[in-house]
Design a protein that fits this description.
single chain; alpha/beta; Aspartate Aminotransferase, domain 1; Aspartate Aminotransferase, domain 2; 2 domains; seven-stranded mixed β-sheet; four-stranded mixed β-sheet; 13 helices
């Protein structure tokens, strides 16, 4: 480890991250390589960002070609690459129009503004318990985690939480005074929790009755990560707004708020904007991601390989019932819930040259690049098995 680098980090940076003490040099495919030449298999993928892994030749070419033309233009100008990217995104999301942002939390903020403009300040907006929608003030108001929220109170008014998968709480809260409900159909930061069919069916019934907006937050669980285009596709559900980011920029900053036809004219010029959102270089990279995932069949490989990984993890659970409580998820968005805090498992995996992370204290979260293949999965499974065995000895 380059200790000088981490000394400078403490000197220069506001301390908002617990850094992983490894000095990385470059990435290649599904691996990250440190300055000593050690290769780490990546089940982190920049927290679900690097869908096509590292140094993907088509992304490198697309970015290089675009930046040689221009790296940035004001959104007062329209670019062909923005239009091409947006056309694909709308096609595979089945939505009507898009607002391009830099990130997921900015897409959330755009959705809150649109909802407030349509319904005014008095109607209620809901998210679900254990939800994570971002860290800016509007997004944080939706995020149901007191550790993130408490130091920054008060947050936006008239935003409340409904207990996750609790139909009784849902029906008790939703009514004529409801403006919108934000849902992660698979919660990411909250621990890879999946919304139940029964809960979704009741949401459908209530939306039909009270005509509120349903926002599907697919920032982490979209763009093929779950083995379908978006996580709500597993429920035969058509949201009014889809929020997307992370994977769609191919490693570059890009987010999107996608709306249905009924909301497509809600914003007028001046109501919302962004300096860098829809940056042409990011759109060029995103274009490659959408082509590979949807047009070249990568989403189907994710479904196949993800099913294999889940089956093997369930076998591991049967081998270690005192360690693994539950295996949850779909595609390449999987959580292994332990009976104890899993930070030690993360460290043991890192010692074995595998990156993963622990979320919600006990859940080993697996978000590999979508290009990961079976031999890499088997390498991970072997080393997870060995890491649990080591933990079992102590």
């Amino acid at each position: 480890m380059n200790t000088d680098l981490f000394i400078k980090e403490k000197e220069y940076f506001i301390h908002t991250y617990n850094r992983i003490p490894i000095d990385l040099a470059y990435g290649e495919g599904v691996h990250l390589i440190d300055r000593k030449g050690n290769r780490y298999l990546d089940f982190f993928s920049g927290l679900g960002v690097n869908a096509l892994g590292y140094s993907h030749p088509l992304i490198v070419k697309a970015v290089s070609d675009q930046i040689s033309k221009f790296g940035h233009l004001s959104n007062y100008f329209l670019t062909d690459i923005q239009v091409e990217f947006s056309e694909k995104l709308l096609k595979y999301s089945k939505m009507s129009k898009v607002f391009l942002s830099n990130s997921g939390t900015e897409a959330v903020e755009a959705a809150i503004k649109l909802i407030r403009k349509k319904f005014g300040p008095d109607k209620k907006i809901f998210s679900l318990s254990n939800a994570f929608h971002g860290r800016t003030y509007g997004a944080l108001s939706l995020t149901a985690n007191d550790n993130y929220r408490t130091p920054f109170l008060p947050l936006l008014p008239n935003i409340h939480q409904i207990a996750f998968n609790n139909i009784q709480d849902l029906t008790a809260n939703i009514g004529i005074n409801t403006a919108a409900v934000f849902v992660e159909f698979i919660q990411g930061e909250g621990g890879i929790n999946m919304v139940s069919e029964e809960f979704v069916n009741e949401l459908k019934n209530l939306r039909k009755k009270f005509d509120f907006i349903l926002v599907s937050d697919c920032i982490q669980c979209g763009i093929g990560r779950t083995g379908k285009a978006f996580s709500h596709d597993y429920y035969d559900f058509e949201p009014d707004i889809i929020l997307s980011a992370k994977a769609i920029g191919g490693g570059l900053p890009l987010g999107a708020m996608l709306v249905n036809n009924a909301l497509s004219d809600e914003f007028a010029p001046g109501d919302h904007g962004t300096t860098f959102g829809g940056n042409p270089v990011s759109c060029a990279a995103g274009n490659v991601v959408l082509s590979e995932v949807f047009e070249h069949g990568l989403v189907h490989e994710v479904k196949m390989n993800g099913d294999y990984l889940i089956r093997q993890l369930l076998e591991l659970k049967n081998m270690y019932p005192d360690h693994i409580k539950e295996v949850r998820g779909r595609g390449f968005m999987i959580g292994v819930d332990f009976y104890y805090e899993c930070a030690n498992i993360v460290t043991k995996l890192r010692d074995r040259k595998i990156f993963a992370n622990c979320t919600n204290k006990t859940v080993l979260r697996l978000l590999p690049p979508l290009i990961m293949e079976k031999n890499d999965i088997d390498f991970f499974l072997y080393n997870l098995h060995e890491s649990i065995k080591e933990a079992d000895k102590k």
